[in-house]
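User: Here's a chain of 410 residues. Predict its fold as tokens.
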Amino acid sequence: MDDRALLADGTTGAAFALSPLSEGNAALAPSTRSELLAHLSAAFDLAEGRTEGHAARVALLGLETARSLRLDRETRERLFYAALLHDAHLGVDPDEAQLEVAARAVFKLGLDLGVAQVIRAARDLIEGKSEADDETPIEALCVAAAHWACDAAEDENPLRARTRLQAANDAELAKVAGTQVATALREALRNDETWIHFWDDELPAFAASQVVGERGPSVNDVVEAASAMGDLVDAALREPGRARRVSELASALARQLALPEATQEALGVAGYLVDIGQLSVPREITEKPSILSVEEMEQMRRHPGLGARIVERIAGMGDIALWIEMHHERPDGRGYPEMLTNDELPLPPRILAVADSYWALRAERPYRPAMSVDEAIEVIQAGAGAQYDQQVANALKAVVNEAEEDADAA
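Assistant: Prediction complete.
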């Protein structure tokens, strides 16, 4: 099958959108933590097989419910982040270890312990492990109520869902969220503006704009949010630390190749997010010990485009989205999803391809053991000029040798 046919599902088409292609002078644009997470929460929707935008809709509807209840600013802020992260266990069994992963992400993002506690309480309500009572945090009740409503709205025609949800006096909702929150939720659902934004492509940015009093946009927030998201993706893919390693190697390769510092930093962020689209691929495919079928391979090949689609909607991250979409292209034109050749590929995705492949080779896989440093470098050198860019493959050897020398000296 022609790889270009995959564009129909899961790619942005960004690879053909830039002309001429940049050779790597991108720089990170400052952003707020709230907007970054509102957009990146689409990754949780991928992992859960939900309608895209579910987490952002839960955040918006939770905030509107909180507004009806006249909750204070700090409470609404905790609610917002808990709503975005309420599915942050990313499709794995919600046992203690994975909930701890979500809590670590909360701390890494500079959020307080209260957000982690709200996530835990909301998950217990959603999964039927507890019922609403006077001891349940009000934020958790709002998140659970919003999740309940969004599940219902996403399963049918939006207008019919709105009418039904406004009129319903559902005992199940009262059990999940309590009578007071259930009433406030229905009041929020009667707000025309809320419902209009519910299905808007700009929903994540709009929901983030409702978080009042947050610190201003910064590049540091971009890096921290990407790093935390990389940790969550790694936890879901059962490969802790991979995103950090790819990020560090991509930045080091860019430095070795004398790219500007701003591009080195941007490649580091791309490294954190490079596998975000893999959350859409079922584990039985990613962990299959034998050769993938044609259908399974097609599903795997959609992941760069899906990841790019999430990232490209964040203001100022268009170049990074492009690099993510292109990181499985090859100089010989046999890559995917666009079958681009070396002349059509900017340098950053060629760097990202080598960094990603190196750490994939160094990791154990169901179909082979982990390779040593020398073995992994040899494989990439053997593919230089066809699968990998020659100058990046040469830079890899220099970077790894330098790192080993530094480690020996220490």
